[in-house]
Design a protein that fits this description.
single chain; mainly alpha; about 85% helix
């Protein structure tokens, strides 16, 4: 649930809290995918450099990004916060799947299927859940 649903929520956040117009928020929200992709490309280098501190570091970057998004004084600063969250969250799924492969002696095809199902559930049900929770708050 760390991939695309928060990106969709970021668009709403930039519109409602950041006071961007709907069109501007949608354009700026596209940056979520760009930074998510960039983070995935950098994941092997980050993991090689940080080792077992990788998970702590990515979650710390996410937390800092959320704080910047929340208390940022301008739309520009809030977009920087969104980019920080995207960069921080991008390796999480990759690292989870990598750990799944490392921790089990199962068939790689079966493990790949499990990872694909988890991703599909997160993107579909995660989006629905976040939307329902947004309406409830």
């Amino acid at each position: 649930m760390l991939d695309f649903p928060p990106g969709q929520m970021a668009i709403l956040f930039l519109r409602d809290v950041g006071k961007a117009s709907s069109g501007t928020a949608a354009m700026l929200g596209a940056g979520w995918g760009v930074f998510l992709f960039a983070g995935r490309l950098l994941t092997p280098r980050v993991r090689a450099a940080l080792g077992h501190w990788t998970v702590v570091t990515i979650y710390s970057l996410e937390l800092a990004g959320v704080l910047v998004m929340w208390i940022g004084p301008s739309l520009t600063v809030r977009v920087v916060g969104m980019a920080m969250v995207a960069l921080g969250s991008s390796p999480a799924y990759v690292l989870a799947v990598d750990r799944l492969y490392d921790e089990t002696d199962g068939d790689p095809a079966v493990l790949g299927s499990v990872a694909a199902l988890a991703s599909g559930l997160a993107v579909s049900i995660g989006t629905l859940s976040l939307g329902a929770l947004t309406d409830a708050v």
